[in-house]
């Protein structure tokens, strides 16, 4: 480098250093000193030395105790990073207020030293954003600070004297700001307030209503409310600071307090809900019985008062006390809701969403079809059953007596015990207790707190509460679930919980007395293995006739069906809705009597409702019969003219799958013959088609010459039968999806007794009265809209044998 260049560089360095000395650098020079932030209160209420509204007299003006105070700060050379505020009494001493109960003292280490020395302590403490807010603000381990990002605060100023009487009270509010360099406004923005309140009014009852001197159990929850007098002109919400109560016993005859029974005032502060307080025999204070050996001469009395956010306390005299008698022996009654006990699987479902369930049912999609959950069946042993599949689910819902209620026109509430689709009222009614003569159904003002659950002899397994096991004195263990656990009041059983065999689900309620139901609710059901058509054998004959000596004498009809099926091995008979144990069906929650688990045992099922005056209840059997035919069953239906209306009802119930499997259209158009035998006794013979034999009406003067006496006097008298349904023609063909196998054989118009007119003959003769439907899955359905028991049994036997041979 040349000497000339070196000299030039030296001159530049000297000049730069000189410039630094002239201008200064960092914070040491006055040019870059931090400028302090400023702050002002922007809300209208209150006053200060430099802010006295012209329309108020500061010696007289009063404000409502609750004030929302806004502020604004400015930092000319940086940004505001936080605010601190405090409330002072009229002597400028810091005070805590409701909502801001925690204030910082010097020893807390939360106040900057310079701020502490110039402004003092008492600044409100806040949670930091990172804080665990379950920790209290007075805990030194809590992430906390006096600084907040709030730009306003709702302050509840005091307005009461030391006795809780309403007294206009002077207070101060101060707020400061801090900037990004840690500088605090040297002079707080402040306002002075004279605030007032009025006496609040306290109300006390229980969470389940007012017992009004009646009996309660030994576990109730008091509920408190407050309000201000309507004429007080209060413009703030009636929010309590705390409720207090005291409990005592009073004599029934005099109303005087039992000596030594009155407690001190008990505060609700610290309770989960400030407006509630649970009382049991184990709380402080504790409930004690007003009954001894069934007799009582005392009543428990609760007096209450409330303190509002201004510190004003209500007068006890303005609050009606709660009176009740604590009585032993009450227990909750557990209820399984039958309408919500459902199953869903490949072998148990419905595809029509029955209207008796007014909610969206669980469903699955199988082979592109939507299948809905359906109630469990009742089998012929009066047990709940469902047929197994690998995707089977069972849904169980439970509750308690009184959970749901119906408000009557009189204003009273009744409690249908097994209807979860009415209004939820959450009353708890007692279960019967024969040991002490309780009939049950009494409101004892308790609450349900837990449920105990078992399944198949063990505590129900639910991982989130796997350790929550309750053990009875006899060693029986239960899973104990809180009322509001994730399961709430229902479970879904799946997988290896539903292996074939018997299963038992048991549940009981636990109430606020810590008492459990003496009689747990129990669902016992059997998962039956699925039987394929090749595993089935024998015949089941279902008698849905109403016994009538002239129309359908039970003994004779049963014998006729026995004769018809005499060549078939393993024939079982069952009376639909009968009374004889071991030979009857049972009704389930949906009025169904035919369980698929029973039907699937048989290669063929004959259902007969041959009494022309009754018609049976086949319209209630959509589910079981559909599942049977969906799974390769063979069904024979013997009926009368009433089948016309029955098929219409099945359609109305959206039993379209069953109608299709039976060989009927979704909107059947059958024509019913008259039920009065005198109006159309023209049916003589079911004329066979497609190789089926003729079936003659049985009566002594049948033109075939082979007639035997009929059990029906009307048939004998009129030489014919009237109550037959036939399929209407559409476009000249029967309105069916199956094939015709029998037609109406009408009396000739010159018949000697009660002949038809030519028009009647032309209208009836040849109409279809018997059909067969062979479905793609191999199932078969045979429908006879004339009663087989009215026909010659030897001929009917040939026909039954033909049907049976088609199944082999």
What is the structure about, briefly put?
This protein is mainly β.
The general outline is elongated
Radius of gyration: 43 Å
Structural class: mainly beta
Mean pLDDT: 93
Provide the spatial order of strands within the biggest beta sheet.
Answer: 40-39-41-42-51-50-49-44-45
Calculate the terminal CA-CA distance, rounded to whole Å: 119 Å
Task: Please give the number of β-strands.
Answer: 51
Helix content: 10-25%
Largest sheet: 9 strands, mixed
Low-confidence stretches: 15-30
Tell me the number of helical segments per DSSP (H or I, 4 or more residues long).
10
Strand content: 25-35%
Commentary on this structure:
The protein is mainly beta and 808 residues long. It has a nine-stranded mixed beta sheet, with helices on both faces. Strands 26, 27, 32, 33, 34, 35, 37 and 38 form an eight-stranded mixed beta sheet that branches. Helix 3 crosses helix 10. It is elongated.
Write the layout of secondary structure elements.
Layout: H1 3-23, E1 38-41, E2 63-64, E3 66-74, E4 80-89, E5 94-95, H2 113-119, E6 126-127, E7 144-145, E8 152-156, E9 169-179, E10 189-196, E11 201-206, E12 215-216, E13 219-227, E14 240-251, E15 266-267, E16 276-280, E17 291-292, E18 295-296, E19 298-308, E20 322-326, E21 334-336, E22 342-344, E23 363-366, E24 369-372, E25 374-375, E26 377-378, E27 384-387, E28 393-400, E29 404-407, E30 413-414, E31 423-424, E32 448-455, E33 458-459, E34 469-471, E35 477-482, E36 490-493, E37 501-511, E38 521-528, E39 539-543, H3 554-564, E40 571-575, H4 596-599, E41 604-608, H5 622-630, E42 634-638, H6 643-652, H7 656-662, E43 670-672, E44 683-688, E45 695-696, H8 713-718, E46 725-727, E47 729-730, E48 733-734, E49 739-746, H9 758-764, E50 768-774, E51 780-784, H10 793-807
Parallel strand pairs: 2-10, 12-20, 27-38, 39-40, 39-41, 41-42, 42-51
Antiparallel strand pairs: 1-3, 3-8, 4-5, 4-9, 6-7, 9-10, 11-13, 13-16, 14-15, 14-19, 17-18, 19-20, 21-28, 22-25, 22-28, 23-24, 26-27, 28-36, 29-30, 29-31, 32-33, 32-35, 32-37, 34-35, 37-38, 43-46, 44-45, 44-49, 47-48, 49-50, 50-51
